[in-house]
Amino acid sequence: MRRLIVLAFASLLLAACASRGPVARPQVELPPLRLPPAALGKSLSLQQRLHFTFGTQQRDLDALLEADPDEVRLLVQAMGQSGVRLSWDGKELREQRAPWLPPAVRGERVLDDLQFVLWPTEAIRAALPSGWTLEERDGERSLQHQGHVWLRSSGDAANGNATLENLAEGYRLQIESASGTEASP
Fold first, then answer.
1. What average pLDDT does the structure give for the chain?
2. Residue 15 in contact with residue 52, Cβ under 8 Å?
């Protein structure tokens, strides 16, 4: 699970970095989660390597993630330069962006991807609007609408590998944890 936290943010960054022209409209708008940090149920501090794939484009990024009951903080870097800093306290999402960061990288989507991968299943289900369902089995989560999977995560938290596939926006994120700690609240 540790590796999955940064997964969400990296996927958005890859999609945005790969996009040189107009931003493509997603096939479906994924529902916002906006879960409180305390709903995670533990504290995290992780350093991760992210590999994004968007079409034929690929990018590698480094990410630092900290989460506690009061706040989620995320820093994503590319080639030693900060791309974005996010902070979510359950009410307000604060974002600092580098001028070179493409507009397609949206802090809201990054937060939602992180929460989809890391937050408990029941917390996510409670936040879903009518018509959306979350299935979880054999280490894989899938977010579905009208019988179609639009967001999927899988991985082996024990060895640090995780993958997020956003089928609505067409990107894939692979995560490897370099180091980190996980603690109960």
1. 82
2. yes
Q: How far apart are CA 100 and CA 80, in angstroms?
A: 13
pLDDT above 90 (res 72): yes
For helices 107-118 and 2-18, give the axis angle rounded to 10 degrees: 150
Prediction pTM value: 0.80
The predicted pLDDT at position 50 comes to 83
- Ordered strands of the 140-145 beta sheet: 93-97, 81-88, 72-78, 57-67, 43-54, 171-183, 161-166, 148-156, 140-145, 132-137
Residue 46 burial (CB count, 10 A): 25
Pair 87, 94: CB distance under 8 Å: yes
Query: Is the Cβ–Cβ distance between 59 and 17 less than 8 Å?
Result: yes
Q: What is the pLDDT of residues 120-149, one digit of tens each?
A: 999 999 999 999 999 999 989 999 999 999
* CA-based end-to-end distance of the chain: 16
Residue 37, helix vs strand vs coil: helix
Contact 89, 78 (CB under 8 A): no
